[in-house]
Amino acid sequence: MTGHMEQSIFTEPGKAPGDKELEKALGKTYTSWNEIRGYVMEHCPAATEEWNYSKFGWNYRLKDKKRVIIYLMPGGQQFRASFVLGQKAVAEALAGDLTEDIKASISIAKTYAEGTGVGIIVNNKKTAKQILKLVDIKLKY
Prior knowledge:
By secondary structure, the protein is of the alpha+beta class. The chain has helices at 19-26, 30-43, 87-95, 100-108, 125-140, and strands at residues 48-54, 57-64, 67-74, 79-85, 111-112, 115-122. It has a single domain (19-140), classed as Aspartate Aminotransferase, domain 1 (Alpha-Beta Complex).
């Protein structure tokens, strides 16, 4: 659910993870990773996907032109889904039917010039379903 995960499980520069490595690292949450990925691609057909390396290791992004829809950072048996939400998206998320844990994460998240940065640890199917609701909200604004 919500929580802290600062570092990708993949930290070797110049070597983005492949599907086999990702599946091994994520374990049972690999299905949820692919469900979220597929959902974004289905609801935003212009989306492009890319692996990106930073000081936190490898993370995966789904973008629509220049705007990142969602960041996914692989961990051990879990991953972090992150969004930058604008003011209207935050208001809708807090008023919607998301779990109290997720609403709490959104309400305490830091707000920057580009929006509120929200990171949610996905380690079960219930949380993955909540991420799909956040994708819907993100795509709306």
